[in-house]
Amino acid sequence: MEMRTLGRVGIEVSPVGFGCWAIGGPFSNPAGEPLGWGEVDDDESVRAIRRAVELGVTFFDTADVYGAGHSERVLGKALAGIRDQVVIATKWGNTFDESTRVMHHQDGSVEYARKAVQASLDRLGTDYLDLYQLHFDTTDEIALPLRDVCEDLVREGLIRSYAWSTDTLHSAELFAAGEHCSAVQHEASVLHDASDFFALCERADLASVNRTPLGMGILGRRTADRPATGADIRTLPPSWLRFFDEGGVPAPEWWDKVAAIRDVLESDGRTLAQGALAWLWARSPRTVPIPGFRTVAQAEENAGAMELGPLSDDKMTDIAKLLPA
Length: 325
Fold this sequence. Notes:
The protein is an alpha/beta fold. It contains ten helices and 14 strands. It has a single domain, classed as Alpha-Beta Barrel (TIM Barrel), CATH 3.20.20.100.
């Protein structure tokens, strides 16, 4: 597949990026409810990232709060010595304590944005970020100064571009008006189309960075009889995590939809996860899905989807018939 572009800024990235939430390991809110994806092996995470780069993946998306700073530190370690070969995206806005791995609240001040960007640069071991993303929903009155400070950070050479990670179209449009906004990060998958966001990216010349492209695992390696366990957010899913019921099992209504389209997604030698990524590439030429990973095998499977490319038009039509709007 051809490289894709982070919008009008013109930064080239691989068609698939890697989401680095899971490799941050456990963290929680003040009530002790899990916000991560459970325990991880940092050495395996580093091997997986380096293997992904070998296979042509150049885009890595993390956030300062993932693992309360730990994801950024692991990613920085893995990319040491090859920083110039990759594009790094991270996010800010949530305050946290690295020592306790607890996320506390949101801080929408300009002062905190400046503090957060420097902390991310330090943890990642780099002197610039390619894409810096606001990581919580807020009002226009708070967001506009943050868009302005992002423009300042571009001029100062600390970031190359910025975006808002949001599922609110108005918020995405607000940031899209900024000169160096290059993308919007939003939820999208074959189970959750995002036509309004795809249209925005087309008319505003933005990349569509796709969260949950594998439906938090039900379009990949999670099965109906294999619940999430331990310090995994899916064991006590918040309201926005629609694909799982409490206890970490896939919600039946969503699992039935996966069953309906599985054969189409797995056609032409693809795995289920590869088919889900292929659907997004066929859905819009601006999509850059960012599936999560925790092992070398998962990294190889996700990266391997690029060799097979987007789904064909007839497969897209078949899925549309099986999953009517």
